[in-house]
Please model this.
Amino acid sequence: MGTTLNVKVWRGTAHGQFVSYRVPLRENQTVLDVVTHIQRHLDSTLTYRFACRVGVCGSCAMTVNGVPRWTCRTHVRQVAKRDRLRIAPLRNLKIIKDLSVDMAAFFDKWARAKGRFVPALEHGGDFAVVEPDSRARKFADAGIECIGCGVCYAACDLVEWNANYLGPAALNRAWVLANDVRDVGNSERLRAVSGDAGCHACHSHQSCTQWCPTRLNPTAGIAGLKRLTAAAAMKGQL
Model:
């Protein structure tokens, strides 16, 4: 690699364009470092989102050379092609400005999928017994570390084709709660995820699993929801 990078960054809203910048190439440089350099030294009007910078919050997610990634964890040397980077906002979400997107639609779908924990006991009751080695608890644990960064949502072709599709993160959350013995909201939840925009719309492309920064498998959770909703339908519970 050379001493500088040719970086193309999306500027504007949905009808914007890519603008080119020359950025010094440094050792152990991340894509977020590149964006920060542009904003601090080349164009202070560049808009983007970040917070922790250490791979915890997920707020710095962007599309890098066509792939949704956490930019704070993505090293330039891993993704640059012939000293070139192309940085865009996450797909499938409304662009506020430049690299910043509106996450409202993403989280609205969590609500539509009934992703809120519904406790079985009133405040002050006895603690629920959760068997850590039970099959259901293992299913829940496998998907519980989602932090809502939106990478899977941006990677999902179904979201692009069908704007009403709930998306992998919302369905993964529904699957986690469906396997939580403390939760009593499953009847309403399974009805919410069983429609045309729910789990049965998934084509199992596994893009969500491929690009999840926390290595979750939303595709497996969605398959689990398909089994649960099919069983509920056969019992006349939907």
In short: The chain has two domains: 4-101, 104-234. The chain has ten helices and seven strands. The mean pLDDT is 94. Residues 28 and 73 are 10 Å apart (CA to CA).
